[in-house]
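Handout, page 2. Input:
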Amino acid sequence: MKRWTRSSWTSIAAAFAALLLLPGCFSEKSMAQPEASASDNEASGGGDRQQEQTFGKLRIGILTGKMNDRYYREAYTDIYEYTHPEWEVEIVPAVDTSRYRYLAPDSEKAGTTATIKELGKLTSGDNPVDVLILDAETLRSAVSSGWTEPLTSYMEQTGDREEDFAPGVIEGLKELGGGELHALAPEYASSALYYNVDWFEKNNVKPPEDGLSWEEAFALTRAASGQDDQGRSVYGLSFTPTLAEDPLWGIRAYTEPLGLHTFDLKSEEMTVNTTEWLNVWSELADMTRQGALPLNQQPESDPEVYDPFGGDLFLGGKAAMTIADSSYAADLQTAMNNADQIEDFKPFRWQTVELPTHPGKEGIGAGIKLGDTFALTAAGKHKSQAWEFIRFVTSEKVQEMGLHDPYRMPSRLTAISREAQIYGYRPEAFIRLRSAEPIAEREDEAVQHNAQLLQISDAGRQLFQRVLRGEIPAKQGLEQWENDGRRWLKGPFTEDGTLTWAEPPSSMGGLLRRRA
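Output:
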């Protein structure tokens, strides 16, 4: 789970919590907390639920951290306890990381705990946790293990609706829940296509719109590329606002929804010498040679030349379109509002549309990631209050306070619309598409646990750059990547080129162990 710094968070939370105690704040009938009767339990879909206490302790389970972990308390529970003094919240980690504080990095006890099994222990026994706060992939495992339960009956009882949340959030959560909604998420990251309205109008090119295919978007990319008034090249599209040192990483907005794998650890085989990879490399190389994409360019760092935009191609007028998350709108707004203080900068109108999609994958985007997810534990003893807690942290009033990660968006449509109005982007551009399968993230995680696998991505980067420069054809580049990658999958090797069979870190749960 992504952890981020909130400056003076405790004081901010306390200040806002004080506001919540004003008359009318969080006092709607739907947020009341009546004692659950047997008939209430039956109506909410849990016929065998026991009557619950109105007051007591709410136990919240997390995957890793410390008892009463400060991050989770500041992010979610302090403000809840302040407004619900009759309830005490306890944060319980499946793996208490404080036990590793004094262990040597190479200690046998370090990283030996199977965290998902430890999480299961929190959901059973005489005192199971009531709520689970999990990342998306761990939620998937928890659902498949039967540790959570669907939220539909609870939402029906309290009048909450799926339609009040971004469709991409709900559909993404349902995908993790095997078709059912087992959790809610108060925030998520989402990306869209930003374009320079003035540039498209000046060049008489039809601007992009929601629902484009990548083929249509690339046609616009070619049409929008050209030169500015000073004769400098303007690319039709930059996959990232600033140039990526690794172009393979930079094109993830295009490749992520396709579900392209680089390697298969189980079979110890490379998976890049395919028609799908060939089509990607060939198409992008052609557009790069045509001057429509800047993939063959490298980030420039000239200490003698001041760049107020830090290499941002879109803000610098060097790209007609780019892909970025919702927080980028604030950067654009700041630049436009201070245009008179930026030398040789002419402010321009900009707008956002939905990311293009691939055929057969029209509902899948890129750069979309759920934040912490909140699920009810199937064996929990305080289900009504646990549901009220989930409702609270995902409520409209809490989301409108803007306490979420600045690089993410609130999940409720009303809160998204409010922020969109403040920062000037179209909310429709960010809300429909759901996240792709996190293949790249899984491969990145494998690299973190076996650094020699980094050689695979490094080889691919160098070969892709040669293809972009026109030094070798795409087919040859992929064949060589396949051969080079096999060398590292079959190894690993020491620096002098000899084989070494050292065991990988056991925290991977055997993922990288060689087959017997």
